[in-house]
Amino acid sequence: MQGSKRGPVPPPLRLDGSSLSSGELARLVSESIEDVALPEEEPPLPFSPSVVAKQLSRIGAEAMLAEDLRTELLTPEGRAQIPHPTALEEWEARIKDLALISKLAAQLWGYLGVGWRWYVSFWRLVLFAVLLLPGFAQMAAFYFFSPRMLRSIPYGVLPRNRLDVFLPRKEWRAAGPRPTVIFITGGAWTIGYKAWGALLGRRLSQRGVLVFCLDYRNFPQGNALDMLQDVNTGIAWVLRHAAAFGGDGESFHLVGQSAGGQLGALALMLQMQQSLTRQPQLGASPVWDPTRIRGFVGVSGAYNLYALADHLHRRGLYRNLFEAIHSLEGKPMLRELSPTFRIRKLGAAVGRRLPPMLILHGTADRSVPMEIAIEFVAALKEAGVPAARLKLYKGKTHTKPIVEDPMRGGRDELMDDVLSQVLGQQCHNLQMPMLPAALIDLASWVCPF
């Protein structure tokens, strides 16, 4: 299937589907963007292979003592949650996963068709990954060998009901139970995976935050309702078990990126509506207590699916696929599954009960235009959501805050903003580069997002 001709980015829409004027958009921008006093820009830190080697050697040394360190880091209840499959069971699971992925990839290919924009985006994504491969290799070493990394812990019985846990270092745990972040990754509802949150999860855990990164079914293995069920199941599991992994049981923050921002915000709103009305809500099962969430952070989130459909169609995520993902009982439900429309419909009764919400978005985001975030924050403010804030990252694309910037080193602004929201105080940290800046610049240039 061929995509339509390229056109302008769609303007944000009112609930009735009409477009906002340029004057109204300017008003929303001025009212929604928080005034942030940024520190003076630091000179970039030089890439140092020796520092990278030291970090890898530390991971290797810790891996030799993995079980002993995990025993120190976890309570008996926490250790009981970790699966211990035999080598044969692991290989059987890998073969089944490979067969399932192949089957789902064939189904997905049928939706995508042979449109040239899809081919171009695919090969640009491959080149992007190849250019950043040395950085991804460093993360893979941590992901597979660090004793602070607990992979694929089951939170439910359905496919892909697994999560990763990023444990804070011992010195942080010695200070007492830790605040907890529940992270929902993106991936255009089709290629998401829990490991996409490894960069942010690792760095937050290095600074004393306990991080749970949820996996969930993607299309065509599941539709929007299945994804919401998985996200709700995962959140409910973390709320029950976080203390067993060193969480304080009180300070929970929900963080969602891209598609994960849409799913997380929608799940939070539906659960709050359900708790207030005492009436079951479609997409709010299983039930969990939304008042335990102390804050929400949305990163490059897709909050208005109705406005986004044509834009993504032009970029290769064709409308037939987009509507199939967000259909219930065969009927597209783009408005009903959009947090922007949902909060406008629910109004102040639910809005006043929602936790503080920080929305982060790049001004150069080609996948989800920044107007989507601007409109969402305006809707949150109209509904009386306390401390609804918008921060725009000047010149940042869809992936820079979550991928390229952490690898570049220096100030990781996304990590600092999430950490500030979680801890309730301004945070400012510097990171050592994982790759030379020139390589990252080239990767950003070819990135399709």
From TrEMBL:
Domain BD-FAE-like: 163-379
TM spans (from-to): 125-145
Domain of life: Eukaryota
UniProt keywords, alphabetically: Hydrolase, Membrane, Transmembrane, Transmembrane helix
GO MF annotation terms: hydrolase activity
Pfam families: BD-FAE (PF20434)
Catalytic activity reported: [protein]-C-terminal S-[(2E,6E)-farnesyl]-L-cysteine methyl ester + H2O = [protein]-C-terminal S-[(2E,6E)-farnesyl]-L-cysteine + methanol + H(+)
Enzyme Commission number: 3.1.1.n2
UniProt region (Disordered), positions on chain: 1-20
SUPFAM superfamilies: alpha/beta-Hydrolases
Family that this chain belongs to: Belongs to the AB hydrolase superfamily. Isoprenylcysteine methylesterase family.
Name of the protein this chain belongs to: protein-S-isoprenylcysteine alpha-carbonyl methylesterase
Source organism of this protein record: Chlorella sorokiniana (Freshwater green alga)
Upper taxonomic lineage: Eukaryota, Viridiplantae, Chlorophyta, core chlorophytes, Trebouxiophyceae
